[in-house]
Amino acid sequence: MPSAVDLVTIGRANMDLYSRDIGASFADVPSGFDAMVGGSPTNIAIGTARLGLTTIALTAVGDDEIGSYVKAFLAREGVITDYIPTKPEGKTAVAILGVMPPDRFPLIFYRDNAADLYIDRADVDQVPLAAAKALLLSGNAFAKGPCRDASLYAGEHAGTLGLTRFLDLDLRPDQWSSPGAFADTMRRLLPSLDVVIGTEEEFHAALSTGISPAMSGQPLSAAERAEVDDFVTDLANTIEMVVVKRGSAGASLVDRGGTHDIPGFPVEVVNTVGAGDSFASGLITRRLAGDSWPDAVRYGNACGAICVTRHGCSLAMPKPGEVESFLEEWQ
Q: 5-329 in CATH: which number?
């Protein structure tokens, strides 16, 4: 067991297959797909490990070759995999992605009976949370299965231990039984955390009593954005910090003192998938290192900007020297 841990992540993991042919539709992919590991919380485990944190990934794999691939990939990236159980009742998940920049990235999940849905309280008890500084929860992990209860349990236990509890809203509409299920769950959960990270669309889905445009990938109206601002302001009065991701525009910090906008970096987009996870990796890394919130968000913005200029997702996440060089160019 490591004597000191920076971060524990909990939630899904899968093999990602990314089209090698940028701009091609699925029907026209001639060169095949590149393999890597994905899933938002596991991406953040990889991103933070690349940036120097000691990170434990709590996920689960099936008793299959894809599971072996996932664990080996994570180990090569420096992520601690000792607490990843094998769940023979499930299969390791797969995601397949097309890359059609600047704004089309069709994504298909194969998560029927995914092994990570079977993470349970006993698995959480195996993780040395008392040795950690922070816990990263994923909104998607609360959608269904034993993983939902295990995530609640992990969050409560981390709170009693004094860990900083981050949650990335990580909305995947097709993983929820109904739009209302996501909203009901998030509205109950969010006030019990320390830091919540999400896009405007994800926050709108969390506040909605009906079907949010975010559930179908539609843009929000000005009135809906105003609703998000009110919701986020109310939430910020009960927790330490709310971080609203705004894509190329950067991110906003919202706390009891108000809203502070941190601009992004204009870059040429190759692939936006994974940019939010790279952003969270940078933000969490620098926040745990003692940076101010604005400095940590600026670092996260740089990580996200670097990621979108590259092909892939977890493999596109930067290492420390790359982020510093990027930021120097923008002084």
A: 3.40.1190.20
